[in-house]
Amino acid sequence: MSRKAAIKDAIKFAKEHNARMVDLKFMDFLGTWQHTSIPAHRLDEGLFEEGLGFDGSSLRGWQPIQASDMSLTPDPTTVRFDPFPTLPTVSFICDISDPITKQPYSRDPRNVARKAEAYLKSTGIADTAYFGPEAEFFVFDDIRFDVKPHASFYAVDSVEGAWNSGRDERPNLGYKPQLKGGYFPVPPLDRHNDLRAEMAVTLEECGIEVDVHHHEVASGGQCEIGIRFDTLVTMADKLQWFKYIVRNVAHRNNKAATFMPKPMPGDNGSGMHVHCSLWKDGQNLFAGDKYAGMSQTALSFIAGIVEHAPAIVAISNPTTNSYKRLVPGFEAPVKLAYSSRNRSAAVRIPIAVGNANARRIEFRTPDPSCNGYLAFAAILMAGLDGVERGLDPGAPMDKDIYNLPPEELAQIPSVPASLEEALQALADDHEFLLKGDVFTEDVIEGWIDYKFDNEIVPTRIHPTPLEYKLYFNG
Question: For binding Mg(2+), which residues are annotated in this chain's numbering (predicted)?
């Protein structure tokens, strides 16, 4: 469909849904949706050509104040009915550009993702990359936190938290999953079945196909809703809608959903396993006659991910909290190995018996705090580097990595243990991201500088409640 036809269809869609408002959403550098709204009568063809100005200096990691003017332009193919505003509203996802040169903005994550798809086609290796993220999340009934010069704390609560098994709830009916005991129980132990079903139905009403929903391993309301795979940019768009819908459905039920990787110690954190595959002319390039029914292309793609994983996680696991999940003992894949079916490996090859189209890899290290546009692009670029260089991933690891003898475990490389280590790995190894001008030096430097100045330094200088427990009387 031509852009002109897509614009006409989008305007028609808004009229058919009796839209009173138009919401314009876009992704900031770090990975949070931002938005501005206009009355529906302003939705015309000119908006899609001229865009709408905004202050880029007020957004994290973007423009300096002396060059603050930016422009956002709605992508007509992204129009959806927004189920949450009181007035009928249609939403568009926007692209960011310079208002003078009209060039796409280098630090617009969606622009990076589009360039990754263009680079894939330019290589001739494949024409399509499919991605399918599994973003886990927690649902809490109460969340309080504060950080002051003289005090800091956090407190979360959940109706199904294991810590509430002895609380006087008048009556306390039990049915609270124990730590690491929340995987797949039926109601009433699964207290969020109806909430997840409401989220799933809302996702489908917004045109996002749901595969499955279930309770996850952790106590305290850990959930997962699986959505169907799609192409890179479209999947990153859908991931933002997914987070938006999950949070807002929880909110209208007087609950709070969070994609924070490790909100509580002592139990599993939330990961975002990312499934991906390469296709060309309608054929799955990952299907073959090698290990686990994979092709040499797939194995080289895996090798690229494993080689560049320390740098990738600076983008796919982008918070200091991410590395509180990436520790042994809580099913987090910290060791850089690959295997069929083995969930302790960083890269898993899921079962696809007799179905060549289902051949794919699953990178299990990422978490849902990431910016999907940047994370998917980085994974694709690492995998393509492996294919272009003909890398060999070596022998698979079909043992339980968690229970290997120490001397054998030491032979398997690990992901960085902190965000600071990951950022250093990215600084040292990012040439593969610069191919095709997908990422730029400006993007890499801006990412590292922002994370260091605004996240690593503050966490270094703030004492925590645990430190008081450990050291106050020391």
Answer: 134, 136, 216, 224, 273, 362
In a domain, 227, yes or no: yes
Q: Which residues face 225 on adjacent strands?
A: 213
Residues classed as catalytic: 55, 134, 136, 216, 224, 273, 343, 362, 364
Determine contact, residues 259/243, Cβ cutoff 8 Å: yes
Residue 148 lies in a domain: no
Domain count across the chain: 2
| 266-294 per-position pLDDT tens digit | 999 999 999 999 999 999 999 999 999 99
Residue 163 CB neighbours (<10 A): 15
276 labelled as ligand-binding? yes
Question: Residue 278 CB: number of other CB atoms within 10 A?
Answer: 25
- To the question of whether residue 170 is assigned a binding role by annotation, the answer is no
Residue 246 neighbours by CB under 8 Å, 6+ apart: 137, 199, 225, 257
Residue 64: CATH number of its domain: 3.10.20.70
Whichever domain contains 411, its CATH number is 3.30.590.10
**Cβ-based neighbour number of residue 449 at 10 Å:** 12
- State pLDDT tens for residues 40-64: 999 999 999 999 999 988 998 898 7
Question: Could you tell me the pLDDT band of residue 203, with boundaries at 50, 70 and 90?
Answer: very high
Question: Which string of b and e fits 12-47 if b means at least 16 CB within 10 Å?
Answer: ebbeebebebbbbbbbbbbbeeeeebeebeebeeeb
Contacts of 2 (CB under 8 A, 6+ apart): none
The answer on whether 69 is annotated among ligand-binding residues is no
| Host domain of residue 93 | 13-105
CA distances from 472 to 1, 465, 467 (A): 66, 10, 7
Token code pair at residue 295? 């092709």
Determine whether the annotation assigns residue 275 to a binding site: yes
